[in-house]
Specification:
This protein is of the alpha/beta class and 657 residues long. Helices cover 48% and strands 10% of the residues. A seven-stranded mixed sheet has the order 7-3-2-1-15-16-17. It has a five-stranded mixed sheet with strand order 8-9-12-14-13, covered by helices on one side. The chain has a three-stranded antiparallel sheet with strand order 4-5-6, with no helix packed on it. 41% of the residues are buried.
Amino acid sequence: MKHLSSNDTDLHYLQLLSQSFPTIADASTEIINLEAIMALPKGTEHFLADIHGESEAFRHILKNASGNIKRKVNELFGNDIRESEKKELCTLIYYPEEKLELIKAQEQDIDDWYRITIHQLVKVCRDVSSKYTRSKVRKSLPHDFAYIIEELLHESLSDNDKAAYVSVIVNTIISTGRADDFICAICNVIQRLAIDQLHILGDIYDRGPGAHIIMDTLRQYHSWDIQWGNHDVLWMGASAGNDACICNVLRLCLRYANLTTIEEYGINLVPLATFALDVYGDDPCLEFMPKLLPGNTMDDKTQQLTAKMHKAIAVLQFKTEAAIFQRHPEWQMLNRCMLSAVDYDKHLCTIDGKAYEMKSCNFPTVDPADPNKLTPEETDLIGKLHHSFRISEKLHKHIRTLLSHGCMYAISNSNLLFHAAIPLNDDGSLKEVEIYPGKRFAGKDLMHNIGMMIRDAFQSDSTQRDYAIDYFLYLWCGKESPLFCKSKMATFERYFLTDKETFKEEKGNYFKLRDSAEVCDRILDAFGVKGQARHIINGHVPVHAGSGENPIKAGGKLMVIDGGFSEAYHHETGIAGYTLVYHSRGFQLVQHEPFTSARDAIMREIDIKSTTQIIEMSAHRMLVADTDKGEELRSQIADLKDLLYAYRHGIITERRK
């Protein structure tokens, strides 16, 4: 402890601190409280990546805490109740409102069911709340039932008097007609306390139909953060007014026949549909037929319209991208102005000096003399689409949420989190990347400055705003972007060329070298990540678990948790996503099978089938004292002890109440 004097430079801070703790008793009580918190078990962190609009599966995994609630129910009740009763209890916890309606329609003695079920739920709630202080649990409780739930959680049934007291509380809940409301309330508390912190390692958007639902869910979630992914940044760019990002967003939605999120954001696609029918009415647009997932019942006429819209927005994308690449030759992406590489008479496309045959070469809006120039109709169309994205209140609300909860990277409890990659040189050293003209950064500085640039795009008074808005496109498809990190994005080639060699997108050095423990240590050192058991955790590239690929790399230093959450990837990965769970005992990787639907979960009590792989167990049970929060608490305790010293030596005077 420092020995303070009246002219100590810390005196001003201690005077401010004394406003919150005006007496020796107040400061002492807070020290006791903080020391006690340090002795609690570490809270459970969940890590998810690449959700890609799969809102039903995402919400179910939050509700069942990646299978943790089911595990706790099995541990608590064992053979005391039947398997069917445990399944019913779990489903009730996940979907209380819906499940209650079904049970009440079938149960003959509902009051007896209420009594048994409330006691069971209290037992589960007591277990999931055991890691937390009473104060934290209290803050999680709904106002209407806070006192009652707290009483039930902390009373013992082994004491006869207390057992009678608890019984009266439960019976009164039932007799006053509040049983349904109470059950819903305590189920929601269980869900909330089962996950202390949620980390999302990017890509909420695209492919699946429910990105907007995921964002609405997160806006209400108690504690979460996100490390932005390339698809999130693409939508940020569209929201900020980058026309090439707008075209990419729409192209992806049309490619997967998924316009639900676009419609929810109020984006008007009538001008695009009208334009597509006018320009491509006689074009079968075979290369642009949407990729339909099982269960999609889109009729032929709608598929054909979608394909025409898909082609129209793709051509518009190539033109708007070229305009940005030409504005920024320092990006070295002029070779991706693909419409300029086409010989429209010979139906050939030249890449790296070699001519390739094209599948089709029908470009009615392209002038071969100036292929990237927009027609007047295209100019009008992009203006209308731009306006629609810029005025979408719900989209901007969701983007603001991403900005307030996210960044390019995070460091949490000796874990470095980011979505895709850290640019590296061939030898594995950190690569300097130019982001602002003439300004180059590597590693942590690179990620920080990109994060600041992204925020600049939404600041009307920023002198860098126009450049920042353009830069979203580089983040999406630039060779040295930490969100892409490939030689090129072969979108044009996949649509129009026959030679599959042109489709190849060579992965950057990070993906080539990330199996090296030495390289991972170099990255962790550069970011200042401390600890004996430190890790890199990221997603972006799906792990082909079905083919035997291991998500744990570099001798356990790197964990890749993109397991193909999106239905579009299930055939590729063989699974339906991962959750990495970090609790007081260590790391567990939960591998999920495809989720059918919330309806099946409620009606048929079908949970996501998940298997758990133990990745790394701690030698001792981790406490709050072992975490980043513990470091903060130790600092606060030291300050409070300095305040006590100042009070007791007359440097600061107590303010008696």
